[in-house]
Amino acid sequence: MSKRKRYFIIVSHCLLNPATRVHLLGKNFIFSQKIIDYFLDKHISIIQLPCPEFTAMGYLRNPQGREQYDNIFFKKHCRKELQSYVDMVCELRNNNNTPLCYIGIQGSPTCSIYWGKHKVNKYNTESMMPDLNGDQVEGTYGVMTAVLDDMLKENKINIPYLEVPVKENIDSEKSIKFFNDLYELLGVPEKSRNT
């Protein structure tokens, strides 16, 4: 077997399949194309995780906040959905493939990296805000991201997490920061970046 180093990334399901997003997150394909083209051009493989919201509640689900998903039943569902993917990550790692990062989705109660403050609805539970301009809190992961983090750490895998600002324009400050963080992670010199 070749000893050449190979690399891969792990992405939230809807980065490659925006059709599964709840309607507040939109169906923006611009980020998907730019990110995927970039990695494939560099011969970096991509593992697409399942969408636990979609597999639990289907297409016609209502937007919910992190609070509604933060329960033992949904976390068990996430763990069950993720198990074979984490096994795949481990098998790749054990065979000279290096995981580079996990890429989550802005505003997702399950897949975000920075879940911020969100409005309280008439039932006194948390709801997603249409503009998603809540204060971002570092380390407050979406529910599935938190489960994934636990599962990776159980297997001694520590990787950086980045969040795609899917509600932003591709040339917004948040978008430019995302791509700069991505290029920095991959060691791309500043003069070679095309953000």
Number of domains: 1
Give me the Rg, rounded.
17 Å
* Element order: H for helix, E for strand: EHHEHHHEHEH
Helix content: 25-40%
User: Helix count, per DSSP?
Assistant: 7
Quickly give the structural class: alpha/beta
What's the shape? globular
How are the strands ordered across the major sheet? 2-1-3-4
Give the N-terminus to C-terminus distance in angstroms: 37 Å
How much of the residues is beta strand, in percent? Answer: 5-15%
Mean pLDDT level: 86
Q: Can you count the beta strands?
A: 4
Q: Which residues sit in consecutive blocks of at least 5 with pLDDT less than 50?
A: none
Main features:
195 residues, alpha/beta, four-stranded parallel sheet, 7 helices, 37% helix, globular, DUF523 domain-containing protein
What would you note in describing this structure?
The structure is a single chain. This protein has 195 residues and is α/β, with parallel strands linked by helices. It has one domain (6-190). Helix content is 37%, strand content 12%. It is built from seven helices and four strands. It has helices at residues 13-16, 30-41, 52-57, 66-69, 72-93, 143-154, 173-185; strands at 6-11, 45-48, 97-105, 161-164. Strands 2-1-3-4 form a four-stranded parallel sheet, sandwiched between helices. Helix 6 links the parallel strand 3 (97-105) and strand 4. Helix 5 crosses helix 6. The radius of gyration is 17 Å and the shape is globular. It starts with 5 loop residues before the first strand and ends in a 10-residue tail after the last helix. The mean pLDDT is 86.
